[in-house]
Design brief:
single chain; Structural Genomics Hypothetical 15.5 Kd Protein In mrcA-pckA Intergenic Region, Chain A; Pseudouridine synthase; 9-stranded mixed beta sheet; 4-stranded antiparallel beta sheet; 27% strand
Length: 302
């Protein structure tokens, strides 16, 4: 265990887990969650839960467990990586479609994490042994930019940018049909489908999480349209669910009504912009358009 951490709350907060992440930002949220579920955080001498509110004057005592070691099952594998940027703090990769990001049931090998471990050697586990260095994820069949942290400090700093929505993400999606307007924004809270548990759905129920996606048409051939999508939030399957709700599902997206005439959903994480976790420099990355996209942005002036 690390040394015990003490602090007296100066003002009220909705949830203890969020308060902890703000007070000690150098530690990842995953490590705080582990501390809370292990009963290692007390408020006024009583073991507390993540959802407990914090009140001004509360005395918080916490023991932070060390980062979880990688299990022996996560082994380095010599899988080629398309590296867009690399330094001692982070990687930006162009993930190909079909590559799973991290090991999980049914995909214990052959993942992006296995490839990163072979390329970099050990990287921060960040409190989750199966997701070392992973800041954000892309679906298996979504291609494009993905960031990987090499250190715990980089992981914490970059994860904070995603949580605070200061990281800017731009996707390209080939969708069915032609939207009635050239641009718009979709606001629709998302939760897991109550029956089909592998899907997400727009919902007005209290547990649904707010989600917003801005979009604009870059090109259309009358049957398909190429959309630029800028998610303001980062919910699971957000763009795919929102475009289905718009009436223009992503082509090839069998889960959300995009048809089966393409081998994968035509969704690409095109660009990402973040602040460097060590230097504070603005970093902007772009992944080339994938070869399987049937549309390209219209030439300037057309």
């Amino acid at each position: 265990m690390d040394d015990t951490l003490y602090r007296t709350a100066e003002q009220r907060a909705e949830r203890l887990d969020r308060w902890l992440a703000v007070q000690w930002p150098d530690f990842s949220r995953a490590r705080w969650q582990k501390a809370l579920t292990s009963g290692l955080v007390q408020v006024n001498g009583t073991v507390a839960r993540a959802s407990d509110p914090v009140r001004a004057g509360d005395k918080i005592e916490a023991h932070l467990p060390p980062p979880a070691p990688l299990p022996a099952s996560v082994t380095p594998e010599n899988i080629p990586l398309d590296i867009l940027y690399e330094d001692e703090h982070l990687l930006c990769l162009n993930k190909p479609p079909g590559l799973v990001v991290h090991p999980a049931v049914g995909h214990w090998q052959g993942t992006l994490v296995n490839a990163v471990l072979h390329h970099c050697g050990p990287v921060t586990a960040g409190g989750h042994p199966l997701r070392p260095g992973i800041i954000h994820r892309l679906d298996k069949d979504t291609s494009g930019c993905i960031l990987v942290a090499k250190t715990d400090q980089a992981l914490t700093a970059l994860a904070r940018q995603f949580a605070e929505r200061s990281a800017e993400k731009t996707y390209l999606a080939v969708v069915r049909g032609v939207p009635r307007t050239s641009a718009g924004s979709i606001n629709g809270a998302i939760e897991r489908h109550p029956v089909h548990r592998q899907r997400m759905t727009i919902s007005r129920r209290p547990g649904a999480r707010a989600a917003e996606t801005a979009w604009r048409v870059l090109h259309s051939d009358g049957k398909l349209s190429l959309l630029e999508c800028r998610p303001k939030t980062g919910r699971t399957h957000q763009i795919r669910v929102h475009l289905k709700h718009l009436g223009h599902p992503v082509a090839g997206d069998r889960t959300y009504g995009g048809g089966a005439d393409y081998p994968r959903q035509l969704l690409h994480a095109w660009k990402i912009a973040v602040t460097h976790p060590a230097t504070g420099e603005l970093l902007e990355f772009a992944a080339p358009l994938p070869a399987d996209f049937p549309l390209r942005p219209a030439p300037a002036g057309s």
